[in-house]
Amino acid sequence: MKTSLDLEKPSKTPLRLSCKQAALLVSLSFERRLSFRECVSMRLHLVWCRTCTFYGRQIKALRAIFIRHEEFLHGTPPASDEKLTDTAKKRIQDGIDRAL
Amino acid sequence: MTEKASHTPYPQQVSSPETWVRDHGDYLFRYAMMRLRDRDTAENMVQETFLAALKGRASFNGRSSERTWMVGILKHKIIDHYRKDFRERPVTDLQDFFGEEERTIDSFYDALENPRKYPKDWMPDQQATLVSKEFWTTLHGCLQKLPGPTAGAFAMREVDDMDTAAICKELGITPTNLWVMLHRARLQLRECLERNWFEKK
After folding, report:
1. What is the ipTM of this complex?
2. B82 and B95 in a common domain
3. Residues 41-60, chain B: which have Cβ within 8 Å of A?
4. Does the bond joining A78 to the residue before it have cis omega, within 30 degrees of 0?
5. Is residue B3 part of a domain?
6. What pLDDT digit, counting tens, does each position of A17-75 carry?
7. Fewer CB near the last or first residue (10 Å), C or N of chain B?
8. Rounded distance, CA B16 to CA B66, Å?
């Protein structure tokens, strides 16, 4: 079985995919509309492959996590302790003062 | 960014630069840290943002809040940083890089031949996981393990929600290059989170 897919030639997608090919198509489905052929091959694979089904669900959930990053940014829950250190603050402020 | 009441009039002039670090420093730093891998670069980006804001403060017109205006500057600085990452590399270097990304994907699948390494059946619990500080720290640790260019492309796509065409234009790469990097990033992040977070819960 061929190991990599030619993403520029969707019509050449084999009907039977390896896990590696199927996972690539799952990821690709977030980036562009899959061709009919790609879609059928991917769905066929997902019917019997537990592993790729988990993979697909999890990376979808990962994408949802990044949508929550705004909250992270505001320091409200989910909060982050990320702060500029006092040294960095001083250095940056000095830079501003010099440029003023 | 998040100011909902965009019709609210904002002050026509920026506040005194002496208060910028105190008022916006941590916020801009967190914004940068979500998109960059290391503190030093993030700090430098914040500093450059303030200096650019200082130069451009006469052009601030109060159509957005001061913070939104600064975030806009920072966003451009970060994209510039990644653009340089790609555009200043020799073409052969880049080809090697994309080749390496494909080999990394291969090696994930070689590992998958071992059933014990199969993705485990977990799903992040939106409520419990995402409000946890430790989760965000773990996620950030995982992001830092990505190669710089991959992390940049991933941040533009997932954090800033830019589309393929826009990212490719900024970075001067083909859609296929981008898709391979995004796939690699997702594979690696998924695995890293599984190992360092979900399996430990």
Report:
1. 0.82
2. no
3. 43, 46-47, 50-51, 54-55
4. yes
5. no
6. 888 899 999 999 999 999 999 999 999 999 988 888 988 999 998 888 887 766 665 55
7. C
8. 11
Is A81–B33 a contact, with Cβ atoms under 8 angstroms apart? Answer: no
Task: Check B30 against A72: CB less than 8 A apart.
Answer: yes
Identify whether B192 is part of a domain: yes
- Burial label for B9, CB within 10 Å (0-12, 13-18, 19+), is exposed
Interface-testing mutation among B35, B134, B158, with chain A (most A C-beta atoms within 10 A): B158
For residues B119 and B190, is the Cβ–Cβ distance under 8 A? Answer: yes
Q: Residue A41 sits in which domain range?
A: 1-67
Q: B144: domain range?
A: 89-198
Same domain assignment for residues B194 and B95:
yes
Give the residue on A whose Cα is nearest the Cα of B163.
Answer: A31
Do both B58 and B147 map to the same domain? no
Q: Which residue has the tokens 């619990």?
A: B125
